[in-house]
Fold these 4 entries.
Entry 1:
Amino acid sequence: MKNIIYILCLSFIVFSCNREEFLDIEPKGRIIPKKVNDYRLLLDQTEKFGNTQGLQVISPGFENSYSNTELASDDVMITENLSSFYPDGSISTNIFTQNDNIYTDAQEDGDWQALYGQIYVTNIIIEDILNAVGGTLDEQMALKAEAHAHRAFAYFSLVNLYGVHYNPATANEDSGVPLRLGTELSGVQYPRASVQEVYDVILSDLNEALDYLPNLPELIHRPSKAGVYSLLARVYLYMGNFEDARDAANEALLLSNTLVDFNSYADWFFPGIANPPSLAQDDPEIIWSKSSNSTYNFLIASDDYLSLLAVNDQRRRQFGGPFLFGVSGTESIYTMGFVRNFKPIGPSVPEMLLTRAECNARLNNVSLAIDDLNTLREKRMDTGTFEPLAEIDQDVVLNLVKKERRIELVMKGHRYFDLKRYNVYDSSKIDLVHTYNGSTYTLPAGSKNWALPIASKYILQNPEIGENNRD
């Protein structure tokens, strides 16, 4: 089949449409997938809403993922000098100021829309792939496994965006997100599942996927054993299950462990700004490609974050001055989304090293944690300036791991979730403080407001979802 064919998936934006709106409608000019290759093409759809190869694409694209944590974290700030990029009442500003309503009644939440869109498509594949023609059972099972893995990533993102952080003592009672595990449209209700129920689905999906995936993907947006083990490591880390997280990170690193020396990146158009590969497929550190759905967000690095960067740290080359955008000032703007046209948030080799290091630090395997920190840092310092860390006590090492994790994974979708989990598992609690136009906005550790508000549009159309409790 010469042209890529896409299923009608407009109805998969489950909570942005009336339930009956698309019932019993077979789309003109589109073909419901029937062949194994149709499902392959559907899972290989990476472009989000738009046009590709002359066809209107109404799939969210499986590389596209969440972005609303970027401005929610303490890695960013809004300065008075650059406040014109963040007008009062905009979605970005509402996230930054911890507003109880990020969206108007008519606005879509791009994160919710993309992730539930992916879930609907994966449900189609999980339900129907074994009835497809024109392929082998092994091909069918591999595609089904990919769908389970993508669904797990989507639900993991959703429950951490819109739910409180996983706490084993309360997870069975804490509200998570609606579980959509089928494709039916008529008479469906969308009540919230508990955080525990959502995590149970995530773990079930990932374990279901493992047996039928290749060790490494042919294309980086496809799930693989390395990708699934990497996501399992992230899931177990968030659950506070540090032994299983360490073991899963080990499995991932046995399959994919390439680190790139940051010194090897040439300058971009401007001196001092790194120019890494412009395609995820060409970046050997990426294990499974998932990207922020707001690639070009104008993100100002916070003073708190910048204070962590040593003068010999090559990762300073991820930032440029406002002059790049035709504005005067001394702020540091995260430029990688502009340089490489995507902001990766999927599993990577550095993340797995840091996950393993954190788990070993928490399990008091201090020397192993230090080894992983040194492995990473050696590739990040200016040539000839790297000095290995020495073995020290457990608390100091854990803090070093947290510091390195924050530096390395900046703007990659981790920091806000990390703050949430530190406030559950660690004795020292962290309040999140933002300043905007002279006003201070504080999100206290333990507040229910760490769960982002669900857009009112979805609640108005599906009242059983219910609003998140707000302090």
Entry 2:
Amino acid sequence: MPNEDVTEFLPLSPPVFHVMVSLADGDRHGYAIIKEVAERTGGVERLGAGTLYAIIKRLLADGLVVEVSAARSVGKNAERRRYYRLTALGRRVAIAEAERLERAVAAARSSRLLARLRQA
């Protein structure tokens, strides 16, 4: 699968992208993904449970995430929690989307639609 064309998955919707970014630095269960996305976006992007699990279902079907063991979970909800991890393909897709967005922002800056970043 290393040669699979990631562009077939692009563009990602903002909620899908944020879920994938949330998983980029480690395995998370659903509620942790919801919290992390809200924190990372300053509350601008808020995922409901239904939206999140629809996204997870699609990402699983596309082979972009996998469910991993929740053996490290403790507490009353430990058995119910499902953890998710980006696959290698999922990581490549998330990177490709981040690069696509970076190019879009660069184009907006070059046309003076957005202010250029100040050099420190």
Entry 3:
Amino acid sequence: MNQYYTYILASSKNWTLYIGVTSDLLKRVYEHKNWIYKWFSSKYWICNLVHFEVFSDIRDAIEREKRLKKWNRNWKLELIESNNPEWKDLYDELL
């Protein structure tokens, strides 16, 4: 069964956020952390995985990404802090 992820990266607590979707969370976060591509995240040093959600259907993951991108900043911060109050980099826990 395939899994798809909507994720949020942060540069540090309460700073710049990046929201994305992927079918390979470990690989995608690795790419962000190592500046494999010249994305928005490399410009702002966004490399800490602070939130992610798992979906079995790519359409649901994409829809969630779109909804999150429309949220105001406070809602996004509340979402992160409700599941990750210390803003830990969850990437290390996934390894």
Entry 4:
Amino acid sequence: MKRLLLRTNAFIRAAQRTLKRHPLITEDMQKKLELLSEDAFHPLLKTHKLKGALEGSWACSISYELRIIFRFVQYEGAEAILLETVGTHEEVY
């Protein structure tokens, strides 16, 4: 089931900052976002639930050090993915 990706303003700013620092991952990020939309639990994404202050959110991997933080939400009667932020492990956790 393909899910719509909803980008928060915080995600957009974080993505711009991340891509400025790591321009070579632009294609990888796009591929991982497409994969997330198609199958949020694909093994390549290493999707996992978060605890503590980020409880209710999930994380997936773009690369060894970069993560996307997101939530599953309802949007116009369908399940969607709300992209919250992106960055290094240290930045997002």
